[in-house]
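Posting here for the record, re: CU-O-CU linkage.
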Amino acid sequence: MNKNVKWYLVITISVILLIIYAGYFFTDIGRGLRGDSIEANEPLNNNEKESGNKLPIPPLLKDKNPEENKAEFDLKVQYGRKEFIPGYETNTLGYNGDYLGPIIKVNKGDDVKINISNALDEPTTVHWHGLEIPGEMDGGPHQVIDPNTTWEPYFTIDQPAATLWYHPHLLHKTGEQVYKGLAGLIYIEDEASKKLKIPKDHGVNDIPLIIQDKRFTDNGNISYDLSMRDLMNGFLGDTVLINGAINPELDVKNEVIRLRLLNGSNARSYEFNFSDDTKFYQIASDGGFLEKSIEMNKVSLAPAERAEILIDLSDYNVGDKISLRASNYKLMTINIVENSNKTTDIPKDLVEIIDYNREEVVRKRAFVMSGMGPMVTINGKQMNMDRIDEKLNLGELEEWIISNESAGMGMMNSIPHPFHVHGVQFQVIERDGKMPPLNERGWKDTVMVDNGEKVNILAKFRKKGLFMYHCHILEHEDSGMMGQFLVE
Ligand code: C2O
Ligand code: CU
Ligand code: CU
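Prediction output follows.
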């Protein structure tokens, strides 16, 4: 191309982008970009009506290997059809079913093999979010499963009890595949979790909750057509689903119940709370139990973050109900339908977590998240599969300093970015120079980094291979807000 023509193009494109930018900034969409809450930016439909939907409970996946300390599972990635809104069916994706996937439950120390067959006519990957396993088994963008082929990763569970999850990680396609329904939970159990006196009856008093927002078309389809606004903020739906149901109902006894919350949304963050300001106790963060249960009346989760909480319903009577909410929006009704004969207490002490010693840090690295829309970057770079951004040594303690500096463009503030690291559970030691809140002092694999904020984490990488770090707003990830590190 002629040089002058090239410059002409560059200038024209810049001017167009500037006009779009100004347009967005001065409209109400700009509110979100200037850092107001995402919920204010795009409100949710309030689910006041009783839906009559019972909360679907994802089943526990059958372990095909009868031997102790070994487990083998089959997963099939498939197309599905689902009626989210009565009378309307929509195309979906699922693992072993129409939508979402079964729970893979394993024990610490298990040798696990998983046979994943891809029945789609497009490639996918299956990433084990939160597992500490070698890079080749991680299921990131390099472990592509082509249509009609099988991928059989195997690994040993080498980390404490936790609620983790799995989802696709195909380059540029993660947002769409997760949105259409590809996500499932992983439970790890260990000696400590077996000993703890907490609810453990799956679907009865130990309840998985996968929370995701969707945008329905007039005919009940879940559409994933990204507007400019979606590229900016990430895709925000207007209706929240729990385990695939709108405004579901959960029937329980008046006893202590355990909710395992996963924010499986593409981009939306939630501040969960209960009606009547009911207090609860957080007992686990992303990577496992906290040292002590923490009394709270709300908990915020960014995309990909998890929290396990206990609620004591023993003061309620049969016929009472409370609702789980996100800010002021009702997400689920909990009906107390039966008297319990159990008297459970909320345990105060949970597990012991040995804090990393900052003095033993071998290396510090900075990760600066910046840019906007499709130009979001980490350290000024966008994802390149052929480039290794960071090289690490196995077993060394590192301090990563993660900041969000996308507020640089004129008056524009950035939106918060949830930073996720593969292959490791880390400890958050500082938020803007201060101690992090109590519920961030356990194991984490994803951490929210707000406008202009700086978060320091300590991490020891115990598995070899190539891994990703990225923003877990899936549209940002798909735009290239991701990098690669090699552990040797
Ligand atoms: Cu939840 Cu890179 O992933
Ligand atoms: Cu991950
Ligand atoms: Cu982001």
